[in-house]
Amino acid sequence: MTQITVIYFRNPCAKWNTTAITIAGNGIQGNTPTQLSYPQGIFIHDKTKRLFVSDSFNNRIQTFPLDRSTTTGTTVIPRILQGFKIYLDDDDDDFPTIYIAMNGASRVEKWIKGATHGIIIGDTCLDCTGVWLDKEKNVYMTERKRNRILKWSPVTNLTTIAAGETDQSGPRPDHLKDPEGIFVDKITNDLYIADLVNHRIQKWPKGAKEGVTVAGSSDGDPGSDAKSLDRPYGLRVDEETKSLYIVDLLNNRIQRWKHRATEGETIAGDNGEGSKSNQFHHPTDLDFDNEGNLYVSDAWNHRVQLFLLIDNEPCVGPSTTPVSTGSSLKSK
């Protein structure tokens, strides 16, 4: 009998090499197979060990091998209208179903294997920026222009409001302001929102009428210290430990907020705006492979950066909760 090895990763105190390796793009804006132009969204497909990139200004979806055998990209979806965040559904072993927040077309499109055009999902999504699926295959969409998150049901074909109040903005718990990236916890069904101009991450429990601030300022104030965020743009949530991993756009850094923490810690970047291997210029999204390595789309540097996991020891000390095995958290 063959033994299956499960790779655990991302203890809440894990560490990454802060000097990155460029895995996609060459740092020069362009439309050749080795170039990118403002990459917005990224998503790892574990089964094929490929990185999918929403190459926003080139209006295409590119893939790159995780083994770094080449930095030449393959176009899997051409001729889309300014795709932002993407979500990959693992139903197919060879090629995932891809959901694209189509900012330029104000909608979400679903692309299946072999398709020549996308299927429109749900109602109009004005200034559409984020997309995620829950375990029932409901599709969540960030409608930034109207300050709300929409939810489309494949069972009823109806689109409803999952978070925010239509056309109302501000730092109140029931409001959002220019929301961006989203994440749905498949264990709890909690919806997490990068509330961009309120400079915070909001958690909306299923069925709730308002959100709870779990990172950043509940007052909507920006900042650059450990307690603050400045335009959080994308995020991932460890569904077992509930640690948050946040793209802190204008601070050019990636922050980790442990569960119930009152401040975050920098795991990449925070070395000023720039193009060095330890710097970002407008990071927009992040993801992890099944070995725990961190990937970040570095948009104005027109590249995707890889930060290798170097320390996965459990947390110790009275202020932390020890985790003996880490988290195998790739439930996408």
UniProtKB/TrEMBL annotation:
<keyword id="KW-0677">Repeat</keyword>
<dbReference type="GO" id="GO:0043161">
    <property type="term" value="P:proteasome-mediated ubiquitin-dependent protein catabolic process"/>
</dbReference>
<dbReference type="InterPro" id="IPR050952">
    <property type="entry name" value="TRIM-NHL_E3_ligases"/>
</dbReference>
<dbReference type="GO" id="GO:0061630">
    <property type="term" value="F:ubiquitin protein ligase activity"/>
</dbReference>
<feature type="region of interest" description="Disordered">
    <location>
        <begin position="208"/>
        <end position="232"/>
    </location>
</feature>
<dbReference type="InterPro" id="IPR001258">
    <property type="entry name" value="NHL_repeat"/>
</dbReference>
<dbReference type="Pfam" id="PF01436">
    <property type="entry name" value="NHL"/>
</dbReference>
<protein>
    <submittedName>
        <fullName>Uncharacterized protein</fullName>
    </submittedName>
</protein>
<dbReference type="GO" id="GO:0008270">
    <property type="term" value="F:zinc ion binding"/>
</dbReference>
<dbReference type="InterPro" id="IPR011042">
    <property type="entry name" value="6-blade_b-propeller_TolB-like"/>
</dbReference>
<dbReference type="GO" id="GO:0000209">
    <property type="term" value="P:protein polyubiquitination"/>
</dbReference>
